[in-house]
């Protein structure tokens, strides 16, 4: 065995810190004999950012986090990737997507903000129905969506669709990857069976097969769209799902009864129609909220007063919703979260808080907090490295560098320790079929062909003309996160 003494590793680390260029980028400090990987960089944890820290990855999991001295003789034959000055984060977990719509471009902004989701979905109440035409096969579109998120630092998605490999799909047993298939998130777009456009006020006469308490409580996690709108009809949906005595008269065609599913294993997507009193119920029951501010602002001109939710003790996670009205990346969702909270409620959401909404909180919402969402020993090595930028060490907020990073600044994406995207400087460490992909001025290599079943370039060519997945700068035609257009 070729054990590199830890003193030598420490020397490497010291030299790396001293020689760190103004704009830090990961580079291979040592090629090891084993498949183990030692990352050196600024490691993000819930307790803060650990400068010049290390992470050892063995067999796809995290074997060590922290000071290099704690390694002992472990990692002696690991390859060493020196990312000093860069920021090492858990991969983002996107708790809400409609991933198979990834080839549908953002809706053109016609200056119309609606009261309820059925207004834009179906054109009810004289609103404009928004056309949703998917380009390419369902599988190609879904792969395309997973690639866009993967290239943006997202390693897990709850998105109502899946392809094998690429990002983890936490709502499909055969999409979770690396043997995590003993549990799954149940994802529901129409908990009340209201897909045909039923809007109620004062009773619960929606579709014939709504979710009920026993079913919801039996799931590991149940994540449903509830109250997506700003009117009384949206508020009514929460009442029908949180108050057993509200409607005790069955509907003739089935369903029609109110129920109470609000429990710790349940997360509400959007919840835009809920009152502060409703959120008090959510908090008291330990239920969670999935927040998609850009889609909220764009479709309804309003989003949640998330400070109220946080003060009530509710776990909030971010989700991008979908490309037509939401964010193309988790970073852009976080940017919208910050600006919408400030503009609408005068709230300052710190970057670390937004980062938690995309990592640890999201893992809790998904029910995978023992495996994902933080850099801790024993967890899966779903890891993203973000370029630290040119500012002096300590001057910039490393959480800000992670959560708001454009794709161009992503140096490395690992799922279960496997390199799926990397800067070209790291090429000698990758395995499998990889190909160069230019992210603006940053040359990267994508190692997705083995899982995709074709090269990235072949998939891109087959979907020519659809919304891009390589987005080195601001995503084009991004739906507005600004409430001002509400007055149009
Ligand atoms: Zn949705």
Automatic annotation (TrEMBL):
Position of the signal peptide: 1-24
UniProt entry keywords in alphabetical sequence: Hydrolase, Signal
Top-level taxon: Eukaryota
Matches recorded under Gene3D superfamilies: Metal-dependent hydrolases, Urease, subunit C, domain 1
Alphabetized GO MF terms: hydrolase activity, acting on carbon-nitrogen (but not peptide) bonds
Residue ranges constituting the Amidohydrolase-related domain according to the UniProt record: 265-419
PANTHER family: AMIDOHYDROLASE-RELATED DOMAIN-CONTAINING PROTEIN, AMINOHYDROLASE SSNA-RELATED
Protein name, entry field: Amidohydrolase-related domain-containing protein
Organism for this UniProt entry: Xylaria multiplex
């Amino acid at each position: 065995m070729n054990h590199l003494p830890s003193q030598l590793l420490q020397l490497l680390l010291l030299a790396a810190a001293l020689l760190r260029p103004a704009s830090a980028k990961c580079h291979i400090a040592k090629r090891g004999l084993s498949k183990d990987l030692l990352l050196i960089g600024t490691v993000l944890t819930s307790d803060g950012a650990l400068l010049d820290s290390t992470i050892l990855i063995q067999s796809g999991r995290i074997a060590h986090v922290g000071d290099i001295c704690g390694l002992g003789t472990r990692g002696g034959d690991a390859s060493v990737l020196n990312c000093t000055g860069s920021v090492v984060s858990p991969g983002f977990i996107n708790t809400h997507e409609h991933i198979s719509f990834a080839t549908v471009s953002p809706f053109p902004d016609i200056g119309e903000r609606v009261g309820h989701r059925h207004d834009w979905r179906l054109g009810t109440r004289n609103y404009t129905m928004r056309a949703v035409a998917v380009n390419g096969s369902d599988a190609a579109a879904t792969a395309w969506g997973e690639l866009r998120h993967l290239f943006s630092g997202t390693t897990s998605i709850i998105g109502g669709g899946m392809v094998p490999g690429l990002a983890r799909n936490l709502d499909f047993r055969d999409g979770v990857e690396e043997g995590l298939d003993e549990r799954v998130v149940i994802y529901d777009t129409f908990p009340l069976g209201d897909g045909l456009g039923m809007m109620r006020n004062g009773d619960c006469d929606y579709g014939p097969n709504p979710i009920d308490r026993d079913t919801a409580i039996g799931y590991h996690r149940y994540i449903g769209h509830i109250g997506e709108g700003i009117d009384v009809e949206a508020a009514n949906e929460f009442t029908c799902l949180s108050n057993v005595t509200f409607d005790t008269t069955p509907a003739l065609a089935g369903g029609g009864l109110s129920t109470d599913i609000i429990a710790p294993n349940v997360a509400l997507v959007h919840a835009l129609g809920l009152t502060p009193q409703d959120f008090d119920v959510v908090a008291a029951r330990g239920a969670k909220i999935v927040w998609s501010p850009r889609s909220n602002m764009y479709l309804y001109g309003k989003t949640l007063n998330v400070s109220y939710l946080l003060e009530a003790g509710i776990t909030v996670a971010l989700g991008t919703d979908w490309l037509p009205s939401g964010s193309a990346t988790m970073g852009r969702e976080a940017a919208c979260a910050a600006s919408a909270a400030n503009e609408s409620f005068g709230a300052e959401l710190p970057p670390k808080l937004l980062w938690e909404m995309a990592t640890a909180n999201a893992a809790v919402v998904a029910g995978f907090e023992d495996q994902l969402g933080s850099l801790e020993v024993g967890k899966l090595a779903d890891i993203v490295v973000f370029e630290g930028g040119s500012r002096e060490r300590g001057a910039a907020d490393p959480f800000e560098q992670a959560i708001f990073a454009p794709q161009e600044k992503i140096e490395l994406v690992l799922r279960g320790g496997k390199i799926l995207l990397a800067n070209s400087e790291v090429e000698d460490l990758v395995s499998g079929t990889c190909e160069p992909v230019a992210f603006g001025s940053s040359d990267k290599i994508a190692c997705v062909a083995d899982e995709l079943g074709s090269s990235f370039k072949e998939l891109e060519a087959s979907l020519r003309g659809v919304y891009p997945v390589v987005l080195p700068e601001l995503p084009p035609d991004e739906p507005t996160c600004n409430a001002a257009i509400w007055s149009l």
